[in-house]
Amino acid sequence: MQCARHPDTETGLSCGRCDTPICPKCAVMTDVGARCPTCAPSRTLPQFELSPLYLLRAVGAAAVSGVVMGIVWGILLPVGFGFFSIFVGMGVGWAISEPVSLATNRKSGTTVQIVASAGVLLAFFTRNVVADGVVIQSGDLFGYVALVVGIVVAVNRLRF
Q1: What is the pTM of this model?
Q2: Cα 153 from Cα 39, distance rounded (Å)
Q3: What angle is formed at CA 147 by the lines to CA 142 and CA 149, rounded to 5 degrees?
Q4: 35 φ, ψ to 5°?
Q5: How many CB atoms are closer than 10 A to CB 96?
Q6: What is the pLDDT of residue 159?
Q7: Bridge partners of residue 33, in order along the sequence
Q8: Which residues in 98-124 are b (16+ Cβ under 10 Å) and which e?
């Protein structure tokens, strides 16, 4: 028997639904056995499915944690501390991505990463307002370093 998709490959395997001959290259393993790519379900994993309710919860968690972390950051560390800014950014990224992850029942994916990144950005803007009364400071190199590091940490914690 020859594979339907690869005619030069001999196989003894067939689809569990339509009995089309399939080789191991094109077989899709499902809960009920091997299926051909046509019969296999094309559903995304539940870990990456984000319902509107979970999205709303993620936005709320990112907003609240972003404002709280921005206030704490602005009061405790209003100016940059050089190399120490990297650690501040790591802490801010973690402190915002963790509530977002909990609010979405540990879901991950691009949408959750964007929401967490927006939370880190909100924390940075809140810190600027608390520390200096302006939204965007000019010449705040260490603050921008902390912002970038915070976004990278938040995105990596919520990646696939």
Answers
A1: 0.75
A2: 39
A3: 95
A4: -130, 155
A5: 33
A6: 87
A7: 30
A8: bbbbebbeebbbebbbebbbbbbbbbb
pLDDT per residue, tens digit, the chain (160 aa), is: 899 999 999 999 999 889 999 998 889 888 888 899 888 877 677 788 889 999 999 999 999 999 999 999 999 987 777 889 899 999 999 999 999 999 999 999 999 999 999 999 999 999 999 998 899 888 888 999 999 999 999 999 998 7
Q: What is the pLDDT, as a whole number, of residue 77? A: 84
* Contact call for residues 76 and 91 (beta carbons, < 8 A): no
Query: For the chain, which residues make up each domain, given as ranges?
Result: 1-43, 46-157
CA–chain centroid gap for 108, Å, is 5
Distance, CA of 62 to CA of 20 (rounded, Å): 49
Which residue shows structure tokens 């790519």?
37
Q: What is the DSSP string of the chain?
A: -B-SS-TT-B-S-B-TTT--B--TTT-EEETTEEE-TTTS--PPPGGG---HHHHHHHHHHHHHHHHHHHHHHHHH--S--TTHHHHHHHHHHHHHHHHHHHHTTS--SHHHHHHHHHHHHHHHHHHHHHHHS-SS-TT-HHHHHHHHHHHHHHHHHT--
